[in-house]
C-alpha cells in the first residue's frame, strides 16, 4: 500500500492544488485503504493549504468516504423505499447470518463490512447492494449466499 503522502502528491500532480482537488484526493485514499482517518485529513489540508475542518466537512458529507477502517469488501445495502418494498429486510438478514455480523460491523478477519446506503440508483432492480464498486441486483437470500461464497473463495 502506498503511503498517504505519496497518494496525496500523485493526486495533486493530476488535479492540482485547488480546492476542487479535495474530493479526488479523498477518493484516492479510500481506494487505497478503504477509509480516511483524521491524520490523513490533516495531511490533505496542509498539502492543499486549506483548513482541516474544511477537509473533514467534505469527507463527512459523503457516505462513501469512511472514517473508520473497513473490510476488504465493503457491502452497502440500499435502504431506499423501493428496495424496502422488494424485500431488503430478508436480504439484510441473510447477509448478517452469512457474515455473522450486524449492520455497521466488520468481520473479525477484516474481509467484510456491512453497511446501508441511501438510494444506489437501482430502484428498478431492487433489492440491490454494492460490494466495493460492483452492483448486485434482484437479490434474495439464496443469491446473497452465492455472492458471499464467491468473495470468500477470492480470498483463498
Give the class-level CATH name of the largest domain. Alpha Beta
Could you say what the CATH topology of the largest domain is called? Glutaredoxin
Number of helices: 7
Sequence of strands across the biggest β-sheet: 2-1-3-4
Quick rundown:
The protein is an alpha+beta fold and 156 residues long. Helix content is 49%, strand content 12%. The protein has 2 domains: 4-61, Arc Repressor Mutant, subunit A; 73-154, Glutaredoxin (3-Layer(aba) Sandwich), CATH 3.40.30.10.
Which secondary structure elements does this structure contain, and how are they paired or packed?
Blueprint: H1 4-15, H2 22-33, H3 38-48, H4 52-61, E1 73-78, H5 81-85, H6 88-99, E2 112-117, E3 129-131, E4 134-136, H7 141-154
Helix pairs in contact: 1-2, 1-3, 2-3, 3-4, 6-7
Please describe what this structure looks like.
- The chain has two domains: 4-61, Arc Repressor Mutant, subunit A (Orthogonal Bundle); 73-154, Glutaredoxin (3-Layer(aba) Sandwich), CATH 3.40.30.
- It has seven helices and four strands; from the N terminus they run ααααβααβββα.
- The chain has a four-stranded mixed sheet, with helices on one face.
- The longest helix is centred in the last third of the chain and has 14 residues, at 141-154.
- 49% of the residues lie in helices and 12% in strands.
- By secondary structure, the protein is an alpha+beta fold.
- It is elongated and about 50 Å long.
- The relative contact order is 0.12.
Amino acid at each position: 500500500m502506498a503511503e498517504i503522502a505519496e497518494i496525496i502528491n500523485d493526486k495533486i500532480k493530476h488535479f492540482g492544488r485547488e480546492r476542487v482537488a479535495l474530493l479526488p484526493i479523498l477518493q484516492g485514499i479510500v481506494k487505497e485503504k478503504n477509509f480516511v482517518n483524521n491524520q490523513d485529513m490533516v495531511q490533505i489540508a496542509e498539502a492543499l493549504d486549506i483548513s482541516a475542518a474544511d477537509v473533514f466537512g467534505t469527507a463527512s458529507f459523503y457516505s462513501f468516504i469512511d472514517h473508520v477502517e473497513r473490510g476488504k469488501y465493503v457491502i452497502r445495502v440500499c435502504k431506499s423505499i423501493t428496495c424496502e418494498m422488494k424485500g431488503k429486510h430478508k436480504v439484510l438478514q441473510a447477509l448478517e447470518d452469512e457474515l455473522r455480523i450486524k449492520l455497521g460491523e466488520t468481520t473479525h478477519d477484516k474481509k467484510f463490512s456491512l453497511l446501508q446506503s441511501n438510494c444506489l440508483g437501482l430502484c428498478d432492480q431492487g433489492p440491490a447492494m454494492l460490494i466495493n464498486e460492483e452492483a448486485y441486483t434482484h437479490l434474495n437470500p439464496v443469491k446473497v449466499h452465492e455472492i458471499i461464497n464467491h468473495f470468500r473463495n477470492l480470498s483463498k
